[in-house]
Amino acid sequence: CRNSWVLLMIVTLSNAAAMYREIGYVTGNMCFLVFAQLLYVNAIQKGEECIITTWDIFYEKFGWMLAYWNTCGVPFLYSIQALYIQTILKDYSYKPWQLALMVSTLIPAYYIWDNANSQKNRFRMMRHGVPKYIIQRRAFPQLPWGHIENPRTLKSERGELFVDGWYRYGRKLHYTADLVMAFLWGASCGFDSFIPFFYFFFFISHLLDRERRDDHRCRRKYGELWERYLKLVPYK
């Protein structure tokens, strides 16, 4: 996971460097994309301790499918926006107010995505007895409200559900915020081609499948407790 996202960042920065070499400066669109992907890639590095509680590690394991996709798919498909800006848009750039609007949308989406994932995974880590020094790992930046010490939960003999933090307002807010960021990556390339939005539409199908999978698993595992949770938090 670390290698794939670092390689993605290298590919994006390489396209920015190629643009500077060709036209003598880096456009606002490319600067926005570099900033957006840097936030995302850094968040994955700083929160890598959360990976150990994911479905991928617990049940699917790290096999050929994940190894291949993380080596080939992530760095070379998710970086397609940088290549598009460097080869197609060239010296075209959005107006400052358009870039400002995109940044002002990106920052809240990033904050919710980072915080929600942190809250969820640190709750899981506490529940599984992960040492506190790992849970409170001080990689940069640690955003406010990323860890809830005594979270509100729903409990039964079947298990325990986290119903605090961002998850008081929606069951999959981290997915929504993730999709907003994916859309902005594509939007940095304009709207003349479907190609820069491949990642966004691929991600929609991926997250919809995950949402259905999670709902099915939780209904089967938690039973009545899951129904109580749906009434308490009706929004996805």
Automatic annotation (TrEMBL):
Pfam families noted in UniProt: ERG4_ERG24
Record-annotated membrane-spanning stretches: 66-85, 97-113, 182-204
Gene Ontology MF annotations: Delta24(24-1) sterol reductase activity
Any GO CC annotation of this UniProt entry: endoplasmic reticulum membrane
Main location: membrane
GO BP annotations listed: ergosterol biosynthetic process
InterPro entries: ERG24_DHCR-like
Bilayer topology term: Multi-pass membrane protein
Signal sequence range: 1-16
UniProt protein name: C-24 sterol reductase
Species the sequence originates in: Trypanosoma cruzi
